[in-house]
Amino acid sequence: MSLNQNSLSLKQARRIALSAQGFLPQTGGIKRHSLRRHSDKHFDQLMERIAPLQLDSVNVLDRAHYLTLFARLGAYDKQKVDKVFHTPKHNPRRYFEYWGHEASLMPVELYPAFQWRMERARRGEGVWRSLSRFAREKHEMIETVFSLIAKEGPLSSSQVRQILEPDKPKKAGDWWGWSGTKLAVEYLFWCGRVASAGREKFQRYYDVPERVIPTDILNTPALNEQEACVRLMELSAKAHGVGTEKDFRDYFRLDAKQSKLAMEVLLEEGTIEPVDVQGWKDPAFLYKEAVLPSRANCQTLLAPFDSLIWFRERTERLWGCHYRIEIYVPQPKRVYGYYVLPYLQGDQITARLDLKANRQAGRLQIQASHLEPGAKRDKVLADLIPELRKMAEWQGLQDVEINGQGFISSDHLDHDWS
């Protein structure tokens, strides 16, 4: 149902959030595990709701963007996604990669809304400090790399290095192990002087924007910083349904000053309106077209970089779930595991699983499993086990197995939960 109210219960806020993020078919989401019906149109429809789609290199289960889509679509053909998102020289190009939340895929129509960020990067603002220093000190190298890409692109950073520094070994002190040419390419990408032409085996290929971004988009006047921030905050409010100013701001990594000015505009225009949410201390705001579903029948695992939960403060406010990714935590200090996915059941998070795709053995391995407080084990298992089997099949794995401690046992995997 559409909304016209001044206060929301926590359950209502959760359902609004799930609807806004494309989880619920009854409010415009896509029915999960309907493989034959997934088309480019469905990917476009979903991306219009949730973009930016965060990319991440961790591949212990699968790449983050594949998992984010799986959470909403169920099993789908990843080759279709690769064709749309990653194939160099794919035309007509509908998406571009840039710094949205982190490295992200976004509809190409948003390109003019990020040119202010590119311009700031050229001034050394908003980029990593070490990269800004490199740009000041290595101008000649940067121009050499740009000239090569302009002439020979698309090229990966490793190809650039092989051409320009074929015999030069990496120094032990190189930043993140990056060579000078890699730093130059990253700086050019941040500045928008080169763009991502796609990825192969997750390696980004660079080319000049004129050969990547459609001409009509390049000819569209860039939004100034204030206009862009209003546009991005509006998209963020739409993707949240309901949230705080800080929630909206984090979605596209805007700063507090930019966010405050944009919020004033959105409130004045009636795009958002104040609302009280049960238990929230900070002021909350409701998107004008937010929808409150009467129910939420979700059964899905959420990747750490899923836009529903990537802002951990909001995750804790909505679900009472203190969730942190523990990839960089030493193993003895980890609480839940290395790559932990919360399990969304109905409108609640009822479990967390540390999962690994052991492709050599053909197994989806449960490294650890944790039941959330108040969740009923058998009720969780009845939905979770079939979902794990569907995930394994989608990943091309033959079975699910226990490889650690937790509330799920081998007997549970063997049980018929239908």
UniProtKB/TrEMBL annotation:
Entries under PANTHER family matching the protein: CYTOPLASMIC PROTEIN (PTHR30528)
Protein name: Winged helix-turn-helix domain-containing protein
Species the sequence originates in: Cohaesibacter gelatinilyticus
Upper taxonomic lineage: Bacteria, Pseudomonadati, Pseudomonadota, Alphaproteobacteria, Hyphomicrobiales
